């Protein structure tokens, strides 16, 4: 008998009706958090205490090898806890798309449960976790195209517009599905193409399919009194969060440590492998997979120089630049992960009525990690598994109150999608909030100052802060994946 048998309570209704039906609890723990917050450590601690097994949801850790680049726990740090979906694909393989991750992870969850153990999903790749949790609500807010790559090629052969310029594709989309066309940024070729593909493949508008899914889901929730029943079982979510400046400093130190531990050796391994494949005449799509991993691209100029001009006096400089670039890419990635959480995941959790199961644990102070993250995580998990009432998430710490309350308030605001173009920067923004962020950004103000100096634009043409403050704010997040996005 697994440990879960200790946590199988009788349902109230079963007691009242006098029947001895017992509902087995199917708990699932999911750990969100940016890189450097100690997610993997918490997962191992929970697994050792509650008989768990861990499922990796970090796209880069899906790759075999490269323990330093991908920040994998060592065997010793795994402390005998089974880890799944870790090192599952070869270096040259394409990364898993969301649907594939969801399929594999769901299968793994049920296998772990079959062994009477507790599944713990821990991840850095936000859209993997979101994909797993929010079924039917694919990351881009548009339905996925069935059949994957081969289907795509077939479609493109039939509809040459799919390989045309973003402008041409957008014009076509505006014709067939204006709602979707309005959603996407004119430069976002990938999303525009997907909307078109869906139209060509199904003969239906992506916007209609999405609207249908939404209303189905809403009526499903309305008809269920226990809205918290998720297809995956009963869910407890942790969000490991660290104050940005503290985290940045920690990440910088980690990169230094990675370099000491042989980051460059691993990077060279990836680099030589890439060279080999190119030399063999293979085409390599470098826009995704391991080629996009932080720590590889940043050292490429150095590695190229090292192989081509090994005696060059500039080598050290290139190496230092690689280290600095890796640091800044890591910081940006952490920022992107937090932004995804606050802009996307939290509103999805709200829609799914799961928000009160999300616990932010403050990992800012490493000295207090045990008290703030470990002890609180362990106690919450105990209460959750014992079906005791859980405390309010905002009461867990000052940080939890501050961050959660602020985020929820933002995502509760009315959506006011709007499309505005900054003529000075030639940039199109899709929501009021992003517009506001843009016109108050340092970059915009700098461009404006420079333009004013050259007297290229009259003062009245520049959106002022006062004007911005008077405009209503909306919270529709644009998918602003920076270039350091892992996939
Ligand atoms: Zn601007």
TrEMBL record:
Q: Which reactions does this protein catalyse?
A: adenosine(37) in tRNA + dimethylallyl diphosphate = N(6)-dimethylallyladenosine(37) in tRNA + diphosphate
Which is a GO BP term held by this UniProt record? tRNA modification
Q: Which domain of life is it from?
A: Eukaryota
Q: Which Pfam families match?
A: IPPT, zf-C2H2_jaz
Asked whether the UniProt record includes Lyase among its keywords, one would answer no
InterPro entries assigned to the protein according to its UniProt record, in alphabetical order: Dimethylallyltransferase (IPR039657), IPP_transferase_euk (IPR030666), IPT (IPR018022), P-loop_NTPase (IPR027417), Znf_C2H2_jaz (IPR022755), Znf_C2H2_sf (IPR036236)
MF-aspect GO terms: ATP binding; tRNA dimethylallyltransferase activity; zinc ion binding
Q: Which residues form the Zinc finger double-stranded RNA binding domain?
A: 422-444
Its GO CC terms are: mitochondrion
Q: Which UniProt keywords apply?
A: ATP-binding, Cytoplasm, Metal-binding, Nucleotide-binding, Transferase, tRNA processing, Zinc, Zinc-finger
**Enzyme Commission numbers on file:** 2.5.1.75
Similarity annotation:
Belongs to the IPP transferase family.
State its role.
Answer: Catalyzes the transfer of a dimethylallyl group onto the adenine at position 37.
Official protein name in the record: tRNA dimethylallyltransferase
Lineage runs: Eukaryota, Fungi, Dikarya, Ascomycota, Pezizomycotina
